[in-house]
Amino acid sequence: MANTQQFCTFFLKEQFFGVPVQQVQEVIRYQEMTRVPLVPQVIRGLINLRGQIVMAVDLRRRFGMDDRAESQLPMNVVVRTDDGAVSFLVDEIGDVLEVDQDCFEPPPETLHGPARELVRGVYKLTGQLLLELDVGRALASPAGEDWGAASL
Amino acid sequence: MSDTEIVKEFLIESHENLDRLDRDVITLEQDPGSQETLASVFRTIHTIKGTSGFLAFNQLEALTHAGESLLARLRDGLLALNPEITTALLSMVDAVRQMLASIEATGSEGERNDGELIATLTRLQGEEKVPGAVPVPEKPSAPEKPGAPAEPSPASAPNVGDILMKAGKARVSQVWEAVEQQQAGDPRRIGEILVEKGAVKPQDVLDALHAQQPGRGPSASDSTIRVDVGLLDRLMNRVGELVLLRNQIVQFTNSAEDSALQGTSQRLSLLTTELQESVMKTRMQPIGNIWSKFPRTVRDVALGCGKQVGIEMEGKETELDKTIIEAIKDPLTHLVRNAVDHGIEVPEVRRAAGKPAEGRLLLRAFHEGGQVNIEITDDGAGLDYEKIRDKAVEKALVSADQAARMTEREIANLIWLPGFSTAEKVTNVSGRGVGMDVVKTNIEKIGGTVDVQSRPGLGSTVRMKIPLTLAIIPALIVTAAGDRYAIPQVSLLELVRLEGEQSRKAIEQVNGAPVYRLRGKLLPLVYLNVELKVDGQQEGAGTNRKARAGDPDFSAVRDQHRQWIDRLQHVLNGNGSLTAQEAGSHETCALGKWIYATGVKEHGAIDDMHVLEKVHKDFHHAVRNVLLLRSQGEGSLAHQELNTVERTSRRIMELTTSVEQKILESENINIVVLQADDRQFGLVVDEINDTEEIVVKPVGKQLKSVNTYAGATIMGDGRVALILDVLGLAQRANVVSEVRDRAMTEKEAKQALGAAGGSQRNAVLLFEYGENRRMAVDLSLVARLEEFPGDSVERAGGHEVVQYRGQIMPLVRVSEVLESHRVKGAEAGQESLHVVVYADQGRSVGLVVDRILDIVEESFLVERQTGRPGVLGSAVIQKRVTDLLDVPGLILSAGVGRLAAGAHA
Fold first, then answer.
1. Taking CB atoms and an 8 Å limit, are B720 and A34 in contact across chains?
2. Which of A78, B307, B736, B848 stands the most exposed, by the fewest C-beta atoms within 10 Å?
């Protein structure tokens, strides 16, 4: 295995996503959140992560998917960014997978909607596809969308 | 230690030395005879010279060498200090500072041309001391720092070679060789020669130079160490987290039974508090650290504009957090320069005004109420209100109309507006119209406030209030829509709670904008729920109060209960089936849950609540009965029972409506009165919880873009709470701009009323004096109401006084002044005194009255009277003729005005 990359994987509405493990600080179960009024909907709230205040971004909302059922508590994938840690709210956590770079392919042209920006590419695994999330873009504010300072 | 580290060490040390040099040279100018100061200056220059020579900074060495020689002649009494020498020495300090800055940035001294300065320094050495020009006092004055030993002077210090030999760093033969080389004409210093020969390491020579310097001996270095500020910041963060963790542990253990655990948790709590205090202390620096540069600043500015200014400082030791010290450094410097440049007059003008030629600048710092107050007072000309007014109009900062109506205080505070400057000529110091607004912005950025007061001809005082630290701040915790928010205490003015009936009537509308009359003035109200858009049901409608979180949606509840009749009818008609179990019970439906969880507990005072509970129970019993009877085949009985369901259902409709109404009516309204910029507004919140010390945590940039939050904090239960940015919130709610216009119209209205005959709504304090005489005093003149025990009255200057808040406050017995006779009991002194404290520009006078009656708000017409000192006139207040007190007049006729002014100074 000359050219492999480890991914921390998770599920969003049965779709299989991954973030390179180097970017992931930790994975934790559901935490109580404090909502932040007036900010875009994708920010679900603030989490107290051992004394550090971490913003929680709901990836379902970021991808424009419908919300989870009330009873389904999201999990936190905490990633490191230049602006401190940020938590992504996801449906379920998968395994850490070692993936061969050879099976990478850019996203298909037919991909549209928010996913077009947010998916860096696809890894063709046996039996399923792993979508690599672009962490930077997931946190950036695309112009004209309901996210970031533009909407305030 | 590498060479770069040595240079770094040299820089840090030299910067400290330079700061001291500035101070010392100024001290020396004021007290030319101080041998200690002179020796201290000499030593500092000598050290810099020595080290720079050894590190091969030749220009630096040449300059300091010239300075050292000049100082040597001063020290030996061959020369007397004069302003020219002082200026030359200060220029040298500046040049040295520039070089050090260049070394720090680029590693070299940079291209310099100090030839002229060196020539000046050398020329000044040659000047003969004019006998008797400046007498050198025999007695040396006290050393500036008690810890700094005055002797021995460097001349008598052991030489570097000796020290190196003693320390075993260099062999005797090597040192001898070097000395011989020097005698043979080598101009270099012994350390340099030894290093070049490889006999000793550079660090050893540095150590030797250190050892050579008295005053920086082991005693100082043993007890203090330098610590990286970054490390302190991290330490502070960790302690902040520890405090939060401690709060959580304490909360857990409070509910635990284990006494050993509780004991341990208490100890943990105590230790954490102590640790927090210690760490805070390490970050604290005396404000004197930044003040120490001001004598120099003042001297330079004063010389530049031909003025004489002396600077005095009080409270140098007042400590502030390092980050705050950094933040106020520039604003303070600007204010000091400004005071000298604009405030203090040139000597001729001062003499003409009967003031001493030398102006006086007073810096004062002191703690008050968890904040630090800093005052900059000058005894200059004071603010020229006319000029400020004209300038503000000329620059279109205010309209001529507005300006004409402004009070002196309002005019004074115009100087903080951007783009304002009255300086007739733009100097290099100030007058460019930038600065004062920047000062204000910077002070406000760290949660401080700034204000100016001035008395024409006597000078001005700029007063700032600064928080002690930024990391941990006191805050008020409030709840809105179930979430907690922290409001920094600095913006908090007062809390108002309106209960029941009062709450509905007290809030009025000005064209849809809710307002509350706070002591006669309209306070605009902002609903936190609405501003934050957290009130789910009716967005944007700010004027109607809605049921609190936790109360059910009554209209939905009513619908549910109404639907039962249709459903039961369906079942009875054979369409579909439903068992009694499926129908649920009076405890499981939404209304029932609410009734038993909160309804009865919180709203038990409402009679209908209990009726509702019972009827609701009957209703569900009837529903179950219908279904039971139906399953038993008792169709007609079931139909009969359905009537009960219908009847109770109707009652439920009525009762829930009435209960909902009463809950809304009985709800209290909590108003947090806040100060944003120079405006006040009332923030309406659901609940006011408590005040707490909170640790401010940074939030991500996504949240910073919403200017409503100043940060976030972690509460005792571990949950995050947002810290509100009061100014941002006010801007969001348009309080800041709207109120400004409103304030003007209010004033116009007042004036119109005043012109029409002086009838207006006024808040007054009613009191009794003399033989049951009623009197009223304008509430805005009353600072506080106090009660003093009779025996606390002392006498000073023929007047009665009490000690009040660290000042001497003169007392005026209202009945004595107005009735011109002593009232029984006034001398007895054993009874307690009811005192109305009147405060004006920092001076307080206590007005002794017999009884405080009431505070009323009425519109009344004042009929002016003449002849009675201390009485403004009379008016009908509360249907009785009441005299209105003229406080300044009363104080004047009591003759305590001078005493009161004295108490201020």
1. yes
2. B736
